[in-house]
Amino acid sequence: MGQILNIGRRVELISMDPHFQDISIGLYRQELKEGTAYLVHTYSHIDGAGERIAFVENAMCILGGMKLSDGGLLHFPCWQEHALASKRVFLEACKLSSDSETEPRPMSILDKKTGLKISVDLRGEGVYRVTAEGEAKDKERRITFIAGALMKLGEMLEAEQSLDKVAFPCGNAHDAMLCLLLVRAPNVRAVLREQDMAAARGILAAPSQQR
To answer: Can you give the pTM of this predicted structure?
Structure first.
């Protein structure tokens, strides 16, 4: 009789990994006494699948500032769920090929729509301020838009009753994760559509259905 693995609740899925033999890779949430942890898992047993999972785990640590335990579980330093942000970190990690170099995203981006340099900086106690360098029409409005996009992508909160300041609900700083979200913030609508499409994908295939 086959063994049933208790790997937790699936929260995200890459149904066909284009960078490794089209295997399915899932992100699963587990609740521990310390808090919320995540498992990156595939049912595939083909040669190299384990190395691909290890790459995705390492990429999530770099891109999202997550920690990897000896038991193979990922968690944020605050041990909070950060549900939407965790999915984004996973999806971005899976977009990378295993032979690529993974680096944390910068604290600033060039906003192609306005030509502004958009930056985020930590103001203390987990509060980040969104600023813009350059000249553009409706500059302040664009700053407010980016801040709002960060709140949508990372389930962040408006901070200090200011439209240009945001904070994670846990009250902690998450620089790497915020910078990853910042890259996607100017195109937040497309990102949200991608998330909706990911949520509608099929279930992770059983071992007998994978190579």
So the answer is: 0.86
